[in-house]
Specification:
This protein has 546 residues and is of the alpha/beta class. Among the domains are: 219 residues, FAD/NAD(P)-binding domain (3-Layer(bba) Sandwich), CATH 3.50.50; 137 residues, 3-Layer(aba) Sandwich (Glutaredoxin), CATH 3.40.30. The chain has 14 helices and 23 strands. Strands 5-4-13-14-15-12-16-19 form an 8-stranded mixed sheet, with helices on both faces. A 6-stranded mixed sheet has the order 7-2-1-11-18-17. The chain has a 4-stranded mixed sheet with strand order 21-20-22-23, covered by helices on one side. Helix 12 links the parallel strand 20 and strand 21. The two termini are 21 Å apart. The relative contact order is 0.12.
Length: 546
């Protein structure tokens, strides 16, 4: 490939999403990954509906839907004292094959474990001629200078080298040596607790225990939560998370880990441990998402408890937000303020989602006395019912989180032009569509297979209620080089799109809404493109070529 425009460090789900977004927009992308491309310990398992909307735009929804997870596997959530012991509460969730698609989105959520999801993204990115994926390459250092970045790397043979690009995106995980080298600190709660994740194989685990299949069991003891068991492939692969007592680092050997697992899973099942990964549960967000021409995305920018599955989904949201802005800047129609807006938009979302994840985790701790939950008595049974209901109520947002997925908004973004309408309540369990500026543009079906969301992605999309789009705005866009296309909305969508005009960004968020003649077109377009008045001529004519 020619000299890359962007270097992406890390080929996890966020790095791959960044490469796909940029690659599909025609940018030359180099991805450098320290590992060999194999997923040895799948931590992420759920793809929320917003991420599935991105997957749909990448043309991969059928691949992800057909990843291999059984369509008839029950996705229940269970609180219990052990796999084959007392069940405190069971929240029944329909299997994927029976799960309806919510009316607010064209894509329902999907269970696709990382050991399948990452290879799907890897294959798609590898097929793009302008994306170069290189594995077993460690980036030792990133340097930002006035006209770009330089990556210093070491390949599998130990050979050192450098590569230059205009920008770099560090997607190198929660520990992120690159973030540390840049001197960027993290703020929040450094340690919620320490845990150990165990990826293991066990055939007929559920059948041997004599219980109904579920997506997750949360195991509760009289002293508090022991950990949880999560289905991976709907068959013989599982992930067990053991919550350690206290916050001190503890070294446990495999025999000790197995004893803990037997306490929760029972003595009978055959267990083949495939990987053990100690980890620290935290709620941290980077103080800055940018250092010169280097950007942070995903876990390198934020860490959160996995309770709710918000981590990788939030990171993929980072990738989508950043990629269209880098592309716009590289093509010349986007201004420097467009890149500055990345942190201003995405950092509050990370804080919001990380807070929701922590609240979900604390919901695992019952407020009632749990000392009797292991006993056999009528009183103990009553306590179990009370504790089970309390635990479910305390974690409801973990299982019912459509608001987290679809309801985030860029309220104070410098590239969003708002109106005087009040901000709707941000509730994590519910979502009400709105075309208010900063929000995700509402979904509606145009025909049996086409969503309004399918119109978004290339440049800006001007949705209009009248017979034609205002020619003044489109003419201003051509003169400024800002790519703006137009689509007429069906009259049936006035409830979702009550204004005459709605300008939607490439990432599907509303940049502005209003009526024709209510805004100065040139000022509006410069604002949403992140350009100052002095940059008016930058990229002139680019919009026609996109």
């Amino acid at each position: 490939m020619s000299t890359p425009s962007v270097i992406v460090v890390g080929a996890g789900p966020v790095g791959l999403a960044t490469a796909l977004e940029l690659g599909l927009r025609g940018q030359e992308v180099l991805v450098l990954e320290a590992g060999n491309g194999q997923v040895h310990h799948p931590r992420a398992g759920g793809v929320n509906s917003r991420t599935m909307e991105f997957v749909r735009r990448w043309g991969l929804s059928d691949r992800v839907r057909g990843c291999g997870f059984p369509a008839d596997y029950p996705l229940d959530i269970v609180f219990s004292t052990g796999l084959d012991r007392h069940e405190l509460y069971r929240h029944e969730v329909k299997p994927l094959g029976l799960m309806p698609t919510p009316p607010q989105t064209p894509e329902r959520r999907q269970r696709c474990p990382q050991l399948w999801f990452d290879p799907i993204l890897t294959e798609a990115a590898s097929k793009l001629p302008n994306v170069d994926l290189r594995f077993n390459v460690t980036v030792d250092r990133l340097e930002s200078h006035s006209d770009g970045v330089t990556a210093h790397f070491t390949d599998a043979s130990g050979q050192a080298g450098t590569v230059d690009a205009r920008y770099a995106v560090a997607c190198d995980g929660a520990a992120s040596p690159l973030r540390s080298a840049l001197g960027i600190e993290m703020s929040g709660i450094p340690l919620l607790n320490r845990s150990i994740g165990v990826f293991f194989r066990s055939k007929n685990l559920v059948e041997r225990a004599g219980v109904r299949p579920s997506a997750r069991w949360v195991f509760i003891s009289p002293e508090g939560p022991i950990g949880n068991l999560t289905v991976v492939n709907g068959d013989d692969l599982w992930r067990f998370t053991h919550i350690l007592e206290g916050t001190d680092r503890q070294e446990l050997d495999i025999a000790s880990v197995e004893r803990v697992m037997r306490r929760a899973l029972g003595p009978e099942p055959d267990i083949e441990i495939l990987d053990i990964a100690p980890w620290r549960r935290s709620q941290l967000v980077a103080d800055s998402y940018r250092s010169g021409n280097i950007f942070l995305a995903g876990d390198s920018a934020h860490t959160m408890s996995p309770t709710g599955g918000h981590g990788s989904n939030t990171g993929i949201g980072d990738a989508v937000d950043l990629a269209w802005k880098l592309d716009a800047r590289l093509r010349g129609w986007g201004g420097e303020e467009l890149l500055d807006s990345y942190e201003l938009e995405r950092r509050p979302i990370a804080q919001r989602n990380a807070s929701a994840a922590t609240r979900n985790f604390y919901g695992w701790y019952a407020k009632s006395d749990t000392s009797l939950i292991m006993e056999e008595s009528d009183e103990a049974e009553s306590v179990r019912r009370q504790v089970g209901q309390e635990l479910f109520d305390g974690t409801r947002e973990e299982w019912e989180s459509i608001g987290v997925a679809l309801g985030y908004r860029y309220e104070n973004s410098p590239i969003v032009v708002g109106d005087d309408s009040p901000e709707p309540e941000d509730t994590f369990g519910t979502y009400t569509p709105t075309n208010r500026a900063g929000h995700r543009a509402p979904h509606a079906w145009i025909d049996e297979t086409t969503s309004v969301l399918d119109w978004f992605g290339e440049g800006f999309m001007l949705l209009h209620q009248g017979s034609e789009a205002p020619p003044q705005l489109l003419d201003s866009a051509r003169k400024l080089g800002v790519p703006v296309a137009a689509k007429k909305l069906p009259s049936s969508l006035t409830d979702l799109y009550p204004t005459e005009l709605t300008l939607v960004r490439p990432d599907g968020h509303v940049a502005w809404r209003g009526d024709a003649g209510s805004v100065d077109e040139r000022t509006l377009l410069l604002r949403v493109a992140g350009r100052t008045a002095e940059q008016e001529a930058d990229g002139a004519g680019m919009g026609e070529r996109l």
